[in-house]
Amino acid sequence: MLLQAPRTSLADSAADSIRAEIAAGRWAVGSRIPIEPQLAQLLGVSRGTVREAVKTLVSRGLLEVRQGSGTYVRSGFDPSASLQKMRRASLRDQFEVRRALEVEAARLAAVRHTAKDLRNLKTLLEKRGVPDPSDGGASFIERDLAFHLAIVDISGNLALAETCRFIAGYIKETIASTMGSSLPEPDTAAHVTIVEAIASRDPDRAAEAVRAFMSPMIDALAQDAELVR
Asked: Closest by alpha carbon to 41, among 67, 5, 16, 70?
């Protein structure tokens, strides 16, 4: 029998209890979970609280609601848990992961790109421009992210593209960290070098261009204990 949900943050606690049952394998992927009144009784909460908890887990991809049939376990993996763990990672860790992903993306993009892909990449680089102080650089971060994600898309590897979008928030943090700080900020020329390397259809050259792009930030973080923390 499920443990009764605590009386604080009831919807979150109810969601945690449901997630624990899924993680323990008591509700297998593909199975239907108890109906709303039964869940409310098991958890000791109102049906409205159960409804909110289920909605939360649906948004995280763990549950799915099938109209006229019930609520089913869609996945045993909760991506929010991974994101919580990643929040504890240092900025250097985030840059190193980003480098690993983008090196492979550039390598594949060099082999698989089309003329249209290159035109799009160059257009995104032109739109990237420079930070606008009026919005704190927010629009610039989005434009820079769009450029880098385009390279990942050109790689033609869906798993790689989805992984990068899953951690897009952390990629934004790495971009923001180079604005107005002691970290070296990659200039337009550094971005052009990556585009040219991809255009060359030389995967090793493309991979090295990304390594050279990322290395100054990672080296600076490795030498600065304050930034690492």
From this structure: 5
For 166-207, the DSSP string reads HTHHHHHHHHHHTSSSSSPPP-HHHHHHHHHHHHTT-HHHHH
User: Is residue 5 within 8 Å of 44, Cβ to Cβ?
Assistant: yes
The tokens 């261009």 sit on which residue? 209
Identify the domain containing residue 181 by its residue range: 89-228
Sorted by sequence, the CB contacts under 8 Å of residue 215 that are 6+ apart come out as none
What are the pLDDT digits (tens) for 142-168? 999 999 999 999 999 999 998 998 888
Cα–Cα distance between 9 and 14 in angstroms, integer? Answer: 9
Assigned token pair, 158? 């869906």
Q: What is the pTM of this model?
A: 0.67
The verdict on 220 and 123 lying in the same domain is: yes
Query: Do residues 209 and 102 lie in contact, with contact meaning Cβ atoms separated by under 8 Å?
Result: no
Is 3 contained in some domain? no
